[in-house]
Amino acid sequence: MRGAHLPGFYIMGPEKGRMDINYGRPHGREDWDAIRELCGRTAEQGKGIPVERWPFFGEYWVGPYQRILPRWTYVARDADRIAGYLTGCPDTASFERWSLLAHRLPLFLKTVMGLYPANEDTRRFVRRFLVLEKSPFSQALFGRYPAHLHVNVDEAYRGARVGKSLLQLYFEDLRKAGVPGVHLVCGNRPVGFYEKLGFRTLARADQVFAMGLPL
């Protein structure tokens, strides 16, 4: 996968001219830092969040994949720029167990020690860690769809098949690993996009959708 190239796939990037997109794994710390930045810039259905929220937000959403399962993270690269990324996991139940000790517990301790600026992100995380607030969806909902994913694409590259290509590469690897299905949780904005890929809505809580795709 590292350095994979889709022949003939070019898009109009943020600079003039045709940009050649390559797909592969994160190469090192700089790529992971770029993924965290893109995570903040594309949060909340693509609108982005204030820069002061980025450190905790990036650690919460990207940190466990970087530490526990980096080989299931994919990037779309335009020269030295990360145009999009996908973080995923073939076995969510196992990932959650590992993440508790390797990521969530250390993050909880750092948060209550004040190492991250207090905001609604940190408060929600603490409430959920202490089981004072529950996730809107039970993991039992995803029994037939054990894998999960998060995908984000730089605004300059949206509509150019970057997200779809990342998903297709991930699905191919999941099938090779014998994974029967994959799920995701998203807002209402990308629901139509995922439905075109074959996902169906499993449950809905207000404007949050749980979706699954058999592989």
Integer-rounded radius of gyration: 17 Å
The class by helix and strand makeup works out as alpha+beta
* Integer count of domains: 1
Number of strands: 8
N-to-C CA distance: 20 Å
Write down the CATH class.
Alpha Beta
Backbone shape = globular
Strand content: 25-35%
CATH architecture tag: 3-Layer(aba) Sandwich
CATH topology: Aminopeptidase
CATH homology group: Gcn5-related N-acetyltransferase (GNAT)
What kind of sheet is the major sheet?
Answer: 8 strands, mixed
Helicity level: 25-40%
Rounded average pLDDT: 89
Strand order of the largest sheet: 1-2-3-4-5-6-8-7
What does this structure look like?
The chain is of the alpha+beta class. The chain has a single domain (4-179), classed as Aminopeptidase (3-Layer(aba) Sandwich), CATH 3.40.630. The chain is built from seven helices and eight strands; from the N terminus they run E-E-H-H-H-E-E-H-H-E-H-E-H-E-E. The radius of gyration is 17 Å and the shape is globular. Mean pLDDT is 89; it is low at 1-18.
